[in-house]
Design a protein that fits this description.
Layout lengths: L6 H19 L6 E12 L9 E17 L4 E6 L6 E4 L13 H13 L2 H6 L4 E7 L9 H16 L6 H16 L6 H7 L5 E6 L4 E6 L5 E7 L7 H19 L14 H7 L5 H25 L3 H17 L6 H12 L3 E6 L7 E7 L3 H16 L4 E5 L6 E2 L3
Parallel strand pairs: 3-5
Antiparallel strand pairs: 1-2, 1-12, 2-5, 2-6, 3-4, 6-7, 8-10, 8-11, 9-10
Helix pairs in contact: 2-4, 2-5, 4-5, 4-6, 5-6, 7-9, 9-10, 11-12
The protein binds alpha-D-galactopyranose (GLA).
Alpha-D-galactopyranose binds next to helix 6.
């Protein structure tokens, strides 16, 4: 089934979320409702932590927040998607992660309190209750965590009237994930969520954190995301391993490439010339990074030239490299990308997010959505005896309050 990417469908889901809030917390006053999108990365796989360029965009599915201030200092967090919530006095917030979903919003809360000035502190003294929910698959590589953290920063900014700008909220979300939750994530996800703009890809250069918005013709193209349903159990460990392997490859190359500050700066010729200093596995990882940087610049150039075919075709090449050189794919992801190669109207496809399961993303001509979907279903079902979940996403804006 194609999910209607209609704004009305989401407005209905948000209204329903407000009802859930009342059922969960009771009381008379209606909550304020906020939405924070997920993201899908189209170009630049595993480049952010190597200082390379990436081109993600936000999607019109994400995290829902229903929030109501309290007169006392109690913080109550609950979720429609998880069982155990948290109820704690502002004075007695846990200082170490609890090992469950509440760590994400708690991390942002602690970070903002930590950075607040004396004057701001006085405003951060009232409690609140929040019901979290959403329509983004969790753990599928669509960045439910960045969606939650950047959205939480906005909610707190508004509830406590802190007057933060987007960059400060993105920074807080990033610190929460890295310093409190303890995931050494790159900068792509919170930036993609926090600076999103509809009908645009975000061009983010992770070396100097500069970004711009590049228009993508969403009246012609749709973003189709196919979820393999394979849970990314090894993802955290394997992800950190890739980060280490790239760091080690760069440490060995750096003395021979004096002007390089990050692995992204090493050229293909330099890798060729000095590759003997790396072990074969590090060579493969570095090769992926360096080629992927080139592909991402080419995709940008082709996008700006209006040549969407050549731009999207870089996705297939990226997938090959992620599978063979970076080794973060799996049979289910390969099956969906291979099916897209044969589906007329699918201009490009690759795994998105960290890999090891989760989703593929495809850029598809709007009129071919149904046909592409049929090919993907058929091929996947033949190989794995079940259907993947396929959704068509529109682009979206960054986190925001939604009037009901
Ligand atoms: C995960 C990380 C991102 C990025 C991607 C790979 O999604 O959270 O920072 O490294 O993997 O491109």
């Amino acid at each position: 089934m194609i999910d209607p990417a209609a704004p009305e469908a989401q407005a209905a889901r948000l209204a329903e979320h407000a009802d859930h809030f009342s059922a969960c917390f009771g009381g008379e006053a209606a909550p304020r409702i906020f939405f924070s999108p997920g993201r899908v990365n189209l170009f630049g796989g595993h480049l952010d932590y190597n200082g390379g360029p990436v081109m993600p965009t936000a999607i019109d599915r994400g995290t829902f927040f229903a929030v109501r201030p309290r007169k006392d200092r109690l913080i109550r967090l609950a979720s429609t998607q998880e069982s155990e919530g948290l109820e704690v006095d502002l004075e007695a917030l846990p200082k170490a992660p609890l090992g469950r979903w509440v760590d994400y919003p708690l991390g942002v809360l602690l970070d903002l309190l930590d950075g607040a000035s004396q004057e701001e502190r006085s405003r951060c003294s009232s409690g609140f209750e929040i019901l979290f929910g959403g329509d983004l698959p969790i753990g599928a590589g669509l960045s439910s965590s960045a969606s939650m953290c950047v959205g939480m920063a906005l909610v707190l900014d508004r509830v406590w009237e802190l007057g933060l700008d987007s960059a400060e909220r993105v920074r807080s979300a990033l610190r929460a994930e890295r310093n409190f939750v303890g995931v050494q994530c790159g900068i792509m996800d919170p930036f993609a969520v926090g600076f999103a703009r509809p009908d645009h890809l975000l061009w983010l250069d992770c070396k100097d954190e500069t970004y711009e918005h590049l228009p993508l013709d969403m009246s012609r193209l749709a973003i189709l995301v196919a979820d393999t349903g394979v849970k990314r159990k090894l993802a955290a460990g394997e992800f950190n391993l890739r980060v280490e392997q790239c760091a080690s490859a760069f440490a060995k190359l750096a003395p021979h490439c004096p002007s390089a500050k990050v692995l992204r700066d090493v050229s293909a010729e330099e890798l060729e010339r000095h590759g003997e200093h790396l072990d074969p596995l590090e060579r493969r990882r570095a090769r992926h990074v360096i080629d992927e940087v080139e592909r991402t610049f080419l995709a940008r150039e082709r996008l700006l030239a209006g040549d969407l075919e050549t731009m999207a075709a870089q996705m297939f090449l990226a997938h090959d490299s992620l599978r063979e050189l970076y080794e973060v794919s799996c049979a289910e992801l390969d099956c969906l990308v291979d099916a897209a190669r044969e589906a007329p109207g699918a201009l490009g496809s690759r795994l998105t997010g960290a890999g090891f399961g989760g989703c593929t993303v495809a850029l598809v001509e709007r009129e071919a959505i149904e046909d592409v979907q049929a090919v993907l279903f058929e091929r996947f079902e033949r190989n794995f005896g079940r259907r993947p979940t396929i959704q068509v996403f529109g682009g979206d804006d960054g986190p925001r309050e939604v009037p009901l």
